[in-house]
Design goal:
Blueprint lengths: L9 E4 L17 E4 L6 E3 L14 H24 L3 E6 L2 E6 L6 E8 L1 E5 L5 H11 L13 E3 L2 E4 L3
Parallel strand pairs: 6-8, 7-9
Antiparallel strand pairs: 1-2, 2-3, 4-7, 5-6
Amino acid sequence: MTTTHSYDVTVEWTGNLGSGTENYRSFARDHEVLAEGKPGIAASSDPAFRGDATRWNPEELLVASVSQCHLLWYLHLCAEGGVVVTEYQDNATAVMTMDASGGGGQITSVVLRPEVTVTDASMVEKARALHGDVAALCFIARSVNFPITEEPVVHVQPD
C-alpha cells in the first residue's frame, strides 16, 4: 500500500513598491513563506538577482532542506545503530551554475559538512559510515537531480 503525505505552504509576495511589475527594477523580490501554525520566513531572491541579502532566498532554503533531511535521518540511523550523538552541526554549501544564455541556472551540487560529536571513541567509524546510508532514505536527497556529497568529521566528547 502506498502512503502519501501532503505539504502545504503559501508564498505571499510583499514586494510591490507601488507600481507592481511595471518594469524589472520597479519591484522588490521580498516575500513571506507561510504555513498554518508556523512563523513566517522572510524571503527574497539572491542579492545577485536584485534580492534582499537580509532575507532567506530559495537556493538557501533548498540547501537547508537537504541538510535538515540528512540530519534527521542520520540521527535516526545513529539511534537505531547504537551511536550516541551529542552534537551535530552542518556547514552545507550548494553550487548554482548559470546556463550560457544567462537566463537560468540550476543547483549542480550540494556538499554537506556535518561535524558530529559522539560519546565514545568506539563509535567513530560507525558514526562516519552511517552518513553514507542516509541518501537512500532521505526524502529530499531522493527527490533532487544533483549530487549530494558528505564530508563528515566525527569528534569524541571529552570526559
